[in-house]
Each structure stands twice: as C-alpha cells, then as structure tokens.
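Fold Annotation — chain and its backbone
Encoding — discrete vocabulary of local shapes
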Amino acid sequence: MASSKGSEAAKPTVGARATVYVAKRDYGTRGAEQGKQVIRFGKTKATIYRRGDVENSSWFFRIHLTDEKRHYRKSLRTTDRREAIQLAHDEIINVLSKVQTGQKILAVSVFDLLRKYRLHLDEQVKSGQIAPTTKKLNEYRLNHGCLFITDNFDSGMQTKLSGIDGNVFKGYLPWRVAKRAAKEKGATIRKDVVRDELLSIRKMFLYAKQQRFCTDKNVPYWDFVIEKEGPRRRRMTRENYTDVVNCIRAWVADAKTEKDIYNRRLLQHIFLLISNSGMRSGEVFGLKNRDVELRESCGECVVEIRAETSKVRRTRRITVGESTGGRVNDSTAINYLLRWATNFRKFREPNDHVFSPLSDGKTSARDVYYHAYKQLRLKLKDIGLEWFDTYHCRHFWITNRLMAEEPIYQVAQAAGTSTAEIEKTYSHILTELSTRKFGNKQVVYEEDGSWEVKQRAKSVKV
C-alpha cells in the first residue's frame, strides 16, 4: 500500500491541470519529467528524461540553444536508457554541427518570419532608412507573396521556411496573371509589376537568411525576364495636359453630393498643385498645416517638405506661386494651394493634413485621391487619355522649368532629386534645347583662316 502511494507521488502534479504534458508549461514541474540524466559532450550538456504522464514513456532529449534562446526537444524513440544515452550523444553532435554553420535548429514558419520582418520594417521607418509609404507598399506586395504560399502549401502560413524551395516562385508569374484575370474580365498585369512584388518578397527571405532562419535554397528565384524598353510612362504633350485639365474641370462640375464635390475638388487641386510645384504625390499627401505658410498678399505659399514624407529622405523648402496655365493673356493667375487652403480646406489645426478626407483631418487624403482618380480615369478613357497618371504632373513641371532654361541644379533642388537623375530622365528635352541653341549661332570663316561666332537674328512673330 505504501509503495502504491509512493508510485502515485511520483506522477507529475501537472496531471491535476491537464492530462497531457506540455513542455513549455510543465518544464521543471515536480514529477513531470522522470529519470532525468545530464549528458555531457565537452562543454556542452543536454538532458534525457521520460515523461511522467505517459506509462512506459520512451526517452526524450532536451538541449538549450543559446543563440535562439529556446530549448530543442526530441523523442529518442527508445525505452532503453543506455541506447538513449548513445542517441543523445549523436544528437548533440548533430546540433553542434548545425550551430557552427550558422543554421537555425528550430525552424521558423512563414507566419513568424512575416511578423519579425514587419518589426524590422518598423525599425527602418523609425531610423529614417525608408518612408512610411515604402513600408506600406512593401507590405502590400508581401501580402501577395503570402497568398501565393497559402495557395501552394498545405500548411499555409505555418509552412516552415526550411520546407520551401525557392524555385517554387517560378510559378509566381502565371499564378499572379491568373489571379488578376479572375478578378476582372480581360484584366492583365505587367511583368514589371510582378517582378517588383517578387523583389519585395525576396528581400524578406534575404532578411531571414541574414538572421539564419533559412539558407540560399529557400530564397525565391524566378526565371522570367523583363524586356528592356523605353520609358515606362508615355510621354505627354502640352495638348494632352490641356485636355486632361479640361476633363477634370467638367468632371468636378458633374459632382452631386457634398462628399463627391469635396473629393473631386481635392483631386483637382492636388493635380494642379503638383503641376505647378513639381512636388511628389506622397509629399503633397504628407503636408500638414504647420508645414505651409500662406502669404496671401503676394499670392505665395512657402512649403516645408519634411524628410519623413520625401522619397529622398531630405527636408527642403519651396515657394509655390501663382499659375496662369501657360497663357500670357486671357487668364487669371491662381495659386492652387492657397485657394484650397483658403476656400475648401476643412481642418485647420497645425497637425491636421492640408488635404484630408471630408470627415477626418488626422488622416491623409491618399486613399480618397486614388479612389477618385479611378473614377476620373473612366472619363479620361473617353478621350483616349486613360494612361495619364499623377506622375505626369510632376513631369510637366520639370519639363517646363527646363524649357524655360532654368539651371539644371536649381530644378533638381526644387524637385528634391539629383542633377544626374534630371539629365538621365529628361535627356531628350536637354538635347532639344541644346541643339536649338546651336541653330541660333553660326561660325563665320575669314579668308585668312580666322573665324568668329555670330548670333543669328531671330525672326519676330507678328
């Protein structure tokens, strides 16, 4: 009878809470582990034990992974102690060999990786390495990668990185094309868009490799090629721009509800502000009232573009003046930022956004703008200009400044970019300007072999 009580006392006390041994919960609980023995291999030690909640339990192996700050556990699948000791030695050697080559012993799932990588992106935003909009774009692309993994692996987001062969991403392009086509009849997706998604997904896996969560074998690989083409955006003409402006004006006039009127006016003013300042759309969306100094007496606005809202992560101050729409006569000069701030802006606290939804000054108007632009594009399609996008407004401003023969470095400073980027992107305009100047000069040779350069008289248009 006494021995029976002794036997009962030897059983794990955790049995009162749960009948099944849970290592991370019951580790160290009295009676949860039976017959524990420390196995040493040099400076390394591990433990073998039998589970107290299982009758005739086989032996288990446990070793603490210092780098991973966790225990690694494994069933040795034997009830013989001597055999368990030998198998434990083999396991220690196996673990040490992997640790020395930088491999992780405990496999990380895609879900765990995504969580860790998002924290990594947050840190990059805080340190100023990337913009919040860049983080948002990366997360959007990563969502597609996660959907691909969910569709191709039974375990979905719980799939271990070690179980993913990077070559599986060769099927990403046809999968993405099929997904897009299923969403909308006749819809397609550009290869460069798919490529950019894969690059973001690969960056996450490269981060995992750097953290030793996976190896080169698990990093996404694809084999399709993006053909080298000319500019990705179609070049616009002055006539194109004028047609778009007129289309927007008519579209705004068709608005019916208060919210629709506000949203369409917002789009119109952002569109015209970018066209007359060269700001990036993200910089406009990031503007807060405290960033803008209104000078109504002279029709100017001084704008501070903060580093955190700029693509190049540098603060700059610009002056936004009035615009005549490219016409000298028969035109009223308008400062579109000043007009919006004076007549249509809803929220005026210093930390409110200059351009915000109708109901909330603390939120950027980004989503409102692009939703409205999607509606506008249907109107643009009627005049064959559905390809026109917001970036063309910035392009229009830079083109006009170059055609006005402003110094390239000043244009680059105002636009928040480099002279090298201006020279690369607008080489066709710079070449046209240079050769136009060449045509206004001629070299006159004298009989004695000397020569001089003379400026040709320009014809006067009447």
In short: Residues 1-18 have pLDDT under 50 and may be disordered. The chain is about 45% helix and 10% strand.
